[in-house]
Amino acid sequence: MADSIKTLTLAQIYEMQGLKEDALKIYREILLESPENKEAQMAIKRLMLVQKYFPPLNLAKKELFVNPKSQEDLIQFQRWLLQWNSKI
Hints:
InterPro entries: TPR-like_helical_dom_sf (IPR011990). Helices cover 69% and strands 0% of the residues.
């Protein structure tokens, strides 16, 4: 992942999509670059508190989200996301 796209927004998107470990990694990288970043500090604290409750990572869906290889991959991910969102 290019450094230029490791932003708070990307971390927040990962977090909302259930990719909390990836979000945590990005927040930590942001703090390495900008130790004074309060938003990243707060996000890390929040995620560290709930980390033991993270659901198991669905690696196949993560790959579809992070690196879709085709339009069909995007459609498949969107369908899964709609089903997942309807459960919460």
